[in-house]
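Assess this one:

_____
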Amino acid sequence: MKNTFIRQAVKLCGITLLGLPQRIPGSFVAIFSIACVTAVLLTVLTLIHGMNKTMEKSGWDSTLIAMRAGSSSELQSVLFPIEVNNMLNHPKVIRDENDRPLFSSEMFVNAEAILPEKTGDRSSLSLALRGVSGDARQMRPHFKLVAGRHFESGLREVVVGQGIVRKHPGVEVGRTIKLGGSEWLVAGIFADNFSVFESEVWADLNTVQNDYQRGNSIQSVRIAFAADVDIEQVRQQWKDDPRLNVQVLSENAYFSKQSESVTRLMRWLGIPLALIMAMGAVVAALNTMYSAIAGRKKEIAVHKAIGFNPASIALSIVFESILLAMIGGVIGILPLYLGLNEVTAATNNAANLSQIMFNFSISPLLMVQALLIAVSIGLLGGILPAIHTIRIPVSLAIRGD
């Protein structure tokens, strides 16, 4: 009995497959709806994946970042040299061959930037300007200059992240960019393993402090600690120190928190929109399959009359609905993959109000996930029509009632 059902189901699915090209024009609404849902979902998934991937590559567990207690980001923090000196006295801080602690005092500025473009125009946007001290490059093991040289201390020179250059190809070594009210020379371009730092512009810390009238204050300090450091113990020691009012966490943990704030808005807006569209696509699939059944009542009645199991007929209806959904899914995925894969995109970081550049990378896993969503819509859209097919009496179907 089971083998008979399987053979009948396979035959009917084959018949459905042969007749599918003739029914695709009448199924346009369902295919188009599912394609739109798949495209939106894939876009949201890719944006979240791209942002998370960029943030994950930006931190190190052995590097601790200290900011003012209560600050949610570097932009809201302020520290002073005396506090930094007190923190650097910790015995677990890594020191170089000259017994100097390995650290980087840094200032983060949300700068209004005007960048040169290939067209000759100059585009205005908000960029992260980071003033860094001498050890900043050593604190990022993946940092490397890919063009030009490093900036000179005391001069209005910058090195620009490769992510900015991918998005704005007019930014080249030797050209000038405007940050705030000042012109800065692009001395070099750097890469950092596609991390968030590639969306930043780096300059000499003292020059940034002077240009933005910040005195000798900084906003964060990155300190290299030994691998066996107990972060909780360090945090408690500095919390108990009356000279300090700081919070400390691993750089990896810091960027994980930043990633949550950046992707939260994408989830709140993108996923509900996709779900609403998915419900519409299910309705379109239902209408399509009910219309298909209405036009094929006599064919279905003949199948029943010659001995086909009603369950195998219902399975062929579900099979057709899933096939249509897969066509819609592929139509939704293919243009995104061909047109946007590996394109550098930009979004605002809600934590510091500056732009983050990341690769719009559509991986096979994301495409499979989006296609599975499309198949699920087709399955939901085919179940009720399939049940309706089972219940159609042969006599009524033959008369066309």
Notes: The radius of gyration is 30 Å. Residues 286 and 381 are 5 Å apart (CA to CA). The first helix runs from residue 2 to 23.
